[in-house]
Amino acid sequence: MFLGTYTPKLDDKGRLTLPAKYRDELAGGLMITKGQDHSLTVYPRDEFAALAERAAAASRSNPQMRAYLRNLASSTDEQRPDAQGRITLSSAHRAYAGLTKDCVVIGSVNYLEIWNATTWEAYLAEHEEGFSEARDEVLRDIL
Questions:
Q1: How many angstroms separate the CA atoms of 43 and 112, rounded?
Q2: Would the pTM count as exceeding 0.90?
Q3: Four-residue CA torsion sign, 43, 135, 68, 75
């Protein structure tokens, strides 16, 4: 499982060092794609393959599903961490997520998210009250 919050720096070559505790799970390869809320999503290769298969099997008559599948497939980059646990983020991914030097990597159970540090802080501030006030109707499927 991917849990926790980490604050690695993006280097001048667009490389980001993954948290050490995740490296073994991602050593076999990973897939980076655009996430929601202008973050990047990092999936272990097998997890991404399962997601892609489900998306590809969905109805092509639904315009939102077609758009989702196109975005998912066209914005995904396969990576293998180097010996230091670094991955290289494409310029398109860095631009989409507004990534500069200060980044935040958060665990989201079965994937990671990479955020611009300022954007992440703003997101937390905006959504903290909603997290604190989550009601049974929102949480009934998981609690």
A1: 7
A2: no
A3: negative
Task: Report which of residues 112 and 60 the model is more confident about.
Answer: 112
DSSP 8-state secondary structure symbol assigned to residue 76: -
Q: What is the pLDDT of residue 60?
A: 82
Q: Say how far apart CA 107 and CA 133 lie, in whole Å.
A: 22
Distance CA 42, CA 28 (A): 13
Name residues whose C-beta falls within 8 Å of residue 115's C-beta, 6 or more positions apart in sequence: 39, 40, 97, 103, 104, 105, 106, 123
Separation CA 57–CA 135 (nearest Å): 33
Tokens of 117: 């540090």
